[in-house]
Predict the 3D structure of the following.
Amino acid sequence: LKRSRFCNIMFVRQPEDYAAMSVTDRTECSGKFERLQKAFLTIQIPSIVGTVGTQMGMFGLHALHSVILARMLGPHGRGEYGTAVLFTQILTYSGMLGTSFSIARRAGKSSDDLGALGNASLRVGVTTGLISFSLVSLLALSVLPESKAYLAPLCMASALLLPFEHARLALLSVDHGSGTFGRYNLNRLVAALVFPILLCLAWAVGVVSVTTATWLSVLTSVISLVALIRSHKNLGFFLPSIPSSRTLLREGVPYATSYFAGQLLGRIDTLLVLWLLDFTQQGYYAVAVAASSLMQVVPNALSLYSFNIGASIRRRMPKRQLLLAAFVVLLAQVGSAIGMGVVLVYFLPLIFGDKFVQAIPFAIALLPGLAIDGLANVAEGYLRGCGRPLSTLLPRTIGSLALVLSAYALFPTWDSLSIPIASSIGYTVSGLAILGMVAWYQTQPVALDQEAGS
């Protein structure tokens, strides 16, 4: 479309451009646009179904390795492993400093050579990975409670995966932004499959420990990166790259700020668990989070497409389409939350083992907030794609504050259960605020040139 002579007609950037068009051009533009809309739906609907299916498959694989870890290590060992990988998990995405979004936007605009952009993504991924490794090491030595400080070396060991994982995620962002969802989905599935396979092999030979699981997570990132690089042609760390790492980092700053706020909201509860609960309760909470995360599968897949829609369109989404999309996602989330609440009571002990029965109240308490947050994630993807990543900073910050205050108020009465309840309150406050931000954004005058550079 960008190469066609209708480009300047169909995606007019200012009202006066449209006013200057002839009647013939307007009629031709309208017919062409309708045919392109039909072609877009024909192509995108199978891709969306494939991506949602991939998300479901990845959830199944993540659930499988969560089950294996729980049964291998028990509640206490699962809590130790959760502590060892906590800071690494926090910085796996937020430590990329927004570069995954800046790379995806560049790939989506197709203005750069994708091969050179892929090489640049490898370099910037290794750079942010090394920075994040240093930060995890600092946190491990200074933030862990005294009773858990002996796990600091394992925290640092788990962080060794960050340079490999950041390079992989940065390269995946090229496929995401360019719409190459076949390769994107396949490589994500391969990466999700490696860890449970390695865990099963370790369990089969009797090598069962927190240390083993930690080092296998590092090996998983190495194998996944190698597999992804081999699926691309003419890709290498030292090959010509465009743009520079500095440019991608600079463009990623707004995304990094908003994404860190979202990650903070999603991780404050685990930090509270780290500081306030013992290893056994921490193990229960880790299993509860893994079991209830099914609520995020479909919204996470849809947020990829809402980002691409926001990054590619040149006009606001019609209000009716926006409301319909929000209603459908909300209805699906509410139905999923109710169904999950019923299923968890019976299947969580069956799948994870009777030792984890006490994880059920934690999981159920998390469901309402995750339902609202799923809808908010789709809306947030749209805003990021539109070049408005900072618009979710305030809602996420308010949600984090609500979570901390709620936990502080509820802990004397509800003890450990206060943390998942407070998490749901924080997600709900943040989600409603983000939806309000989308509604406000839709009412603002279109200023496309400013939006593209915001």
Notes: The mean pLDDT is 81.
